Every structure is written in structure tokens, then in C-alpha cells.
Amino acid sequence: MTAGRDWVRYWRDPGRPLEAMAAHFERHVYHRHSHDAYSFGVTEEGAQAFSCRGAAHTSAAGMVMAFNPDDPHDGRAADALGFTYRIVHIGPDLIRALLADVTGGAAALPLFARPVVHDPVLARALRRLHSALLGGADTLRRDEELAAAVAAMVRRSATRGLSAPSPAADADRTAAQVRELLHERMPADITLDELAKGRSRFAVYRDFRARYGMAPSDYLRQLRLRAARALLAAGVPPAEAAGRVGFADQSHLTRWFGRYYGITPAGYARGRASVASPR
Predict the structure, then answer these.
(1) What tens digit of pLDDT does each residue of 5-22 get?
(2) What is the per-residue burial (b if ≥16 Cβ within 10 Å, else e) of 214-252?
(3) Looking at residue 161, what is its pLDDT?
(4) Residues whose CB falls within 8 Å of the CB of residue 162, separated by 6 or more in sequence, listed in order
(5) Could you give all domains of the chain from N- to C-terminal order, each with its CATH number?
């Protein structure tokens, strides 16, 4: 969608009530409306003015917006420069399931009393989730960021919060079992539900991170990169290696290979680092 300098990017989960949008609006004005989902947004640039719950609000750069299901609101640019924002819509049933997973039992739906919150921690959590959704991240990464963002929003901003269960005595065993399953399934994609196997997804994520110092999705990526190194050393071309270890394509492998090892896959295959030519 474009109108003048307005632009929109949209993403929708085919199997769950989960949607995400990034947009820049200078001319577009939202008519008063509501959603059947929770909506969490972050204003990136400019300022968005809107009315909600009988009051006027402004969300400037860095601020978080939180709308409950069926919260009527409108929206427009606060000035001629417009605003850029990202927003995630999460269905109540999915929110309830995620919170039940955190608490280890039935969880009441949260209520957000303030439509605008200034909290950099929440903003970062929502940006990570949004980037995972629109950026084509693996299913496991999307699940992790979704659980983390919802837990952060409820703990830090909701009037009805939640309490995390006390650490389980078998946390190390749980982490080891998850690690074993990641090795078994690599390079295939895997969901947090599959790793949990009926346990709390939040607890599995927490225990694994505490034991191995990284999220399960980071660990899986590391396994893929290690496998790619072995294939490259054996003479397999980078494009083929990328596909065999679970990366989307060669550029995807190259990007992460460089971040982890400071060298391109081709440079590694040649047995020397890629260095800039002297001036």
C-alpha cells in the first residue's frame, strides 16, 4: 500500500492469530476502529497522535503503544513529517496460552490501562519480535521472541501481571534433553513446542539459556554453521553447503558465517581470510 510517501509492509502467520506490520504514514488517517486482538506497537520516527479511552495521546519515537482487544482508537501523524512505526497483533487465545505456559497453569488475560508507555526494555523486546516476524526468522526464533515479548509486556506494563514458577530441580536435565534434540533434528527447523514436549515452553527456554548461555535458536544456528564449516572444508560449494545445513540461501549463510567467524564461506573454503587490498 502506498499513498504519496506512505508505505506499508505486512506479515501474517498462516496458522495462528499473529500479524505484524511496519508502516510510514504522512497522509493516512485511521478512522476510529478496534481490533479483536492485543496490539503492541513501537513508534520509530516522528510522532503518532490518537484518541483512546476518552483521552488524547501521543506516541513519540521510542514509545510503546498497548491496545487491549476491542479498544476503539484512531490515529494520524502529529505533524507534516509523519511517523514510522511497527506493530504486532496477537490474538487473546494465543496470549492466554503463552501466559499459561509461563505460570505453569491457567492464566487470566492481562489488561493494559495505559495506551502509551515509555519503556526502552519493552521497545527492544517488541523490535526483536517484529524483526523476527517480518525478517523471515526460523520458527524457533519467532516462538522465542513472541514468548519473551508477551512476558515482558505483561510483567512491565499490565495492571494484571504474572509470576514465574520457581526454578525446577531438573533444569539441567531439561536443558540437556533440549540440546540432544537440537543435535538430532539439525538441520531441520523445529518449534519451541516440539522442544518442550509438554513442558512449559518458557521454562525450557529459560533453563536452556541458563545452562548453555544462549537461546535454543542461537544454538541451532551455531550447529548449522559448524556443519557448514565441515562441508566447506571438504570442498562443497557455499551455495550447496547452505542448503544442506538449513540456511535459506548462500547469502543467508554468508551473513551469519561472517558474524560468527569474521570470514566469508568462500574465504574459509580457500583456507585464508578475506582481507582488504592495500591502498
Answers:
(1) 889 898 989 889 999 999
(2) ebbbbbbbbbbbebbbebbeeebebeebbeebbbeebee
(3) 53
(4) 99, 102, 103, 107, 110, 151, 154, 155
(5) 2-157 (2.60.120.10), 171-213 (1.10.10), 219-270 (1.10.10.60)
Retrieve residue 234's grid coordinates.
Answer: 571438504
Q: 193 burial class (0-12, 13-18, 19+ CB within 10 angstroms)?
A: middle
Look up residue 8 and give its amino acid.
Answer: V
- Residue closest to 224 by CA, chosen among 191, 248, 192: 248
SS3 category, 18? strand
H-helix segments, the chain: 92-103, 120-134, 139-157, 171-185, 192-196, 201-212, 216-233, 238-245, 250-261, 265-270
- Which pTM does this prediction carry? 0.74
Give Cα 29 distance to the centre of its chain: 28
Residue with cell string 529459560:
206
Question: CA–CA distance from 45 to each of 50, 86, 179, 261 (Å)?
Answer: 16, 10, 40, 34
Bridge partner list, 45: 84
Q: What is the pLDDT of residues 89-147, one digit of tens each?
A: 999 999 998 888 776 666 778 999 899 999 999 999 999 999 999 998 999 999 999 99
Q: What is the pLDDT of residues 70-105, one digit of tens each?
A: 888 899 999 999 999 999 999 999 999 888 877 666
Pick the closest to residue 100 from 162, 157, 178 (CA basis).
Answer: 162
Give the Cα separation of 95 and 110 in Å (integer).
9
